[in-house]
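Escalation from tier 1.

The customer reports that the assembly of two entities below gives different structure tokens on two consecutive runs. Tier 1 could not reproduce it. I'm attaching the input and our single run for tier 2 to review.
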Amino acid sequence: MSRLHGPGDVQFFDRIARLYDAAMPAADADSLRAGLAFARRPVERVLDVAGGTGRATRALARDGPEPTVVDFSRGMLERARDDGREAVHADAGTLPMRDDSVDAVVVVDALHHLPDPERAVREAARVVVPGGVVVIQEFGPRTLRGRGLVLAERAIGFDSQFWTPDELCDVLERAGLNARIVSGGFEYVVVGRVEDD
Amino acid sequence: MKESLMDILCDPLDKSDLELEVTDRDGDEIITGRLVGTVTGEEYPIEDGIPNLLPPDMRDDE
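Tier 1 run:
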């Protein structure tokens, strides 16, 4: 397996943190909101896991609860902190959060960078309270733009795995979540709800 | 980090409680300090407002 940029591509993101916000488009906040609306409870505490600079959830923070940014890259987190966000340096597969402690976890354009995505989804499901949701935005590998992205990420040495929306729903179901597709296309959103036992 | 974050934080190793020790604060913002695992005894630093709660074997000890 290629590990050119280190575990979870962290060394790469430490290096590019200053350039990242300028280069990346704003995430689709409406689809994220639609995912959060699948929750059966008020969404107050939110974690932005592998959230980097907090870019993806900045739009959510403007009109709702301010997600706490969790990331493996200290460089990215310093940008989030400078932006006034709560930032926690942590591993998505070993979250330092209590069981049932948050209403939602969002993972935006980041799950495919994690060294063990299935484990990260299980951790997300653990920390979300029953009735809460795990919302994941990812890139569809079988769309035209998605095929280009897969090639581009491989070319720069990322060891990325991509899923179709249905495949990602299966990942959520394996973590015990009630999953569904919120929106399709190149940047799709799936959501999994934690149901009562 | 704000002290209210303690509501959700736990020791990454065994998910047990953490004890907060503050060295420097600015209003309700904790700038420097540490979090100590009440069961594991592991120490997690808070530097420049960011708690480092990586498992010890994943820390980049530079």
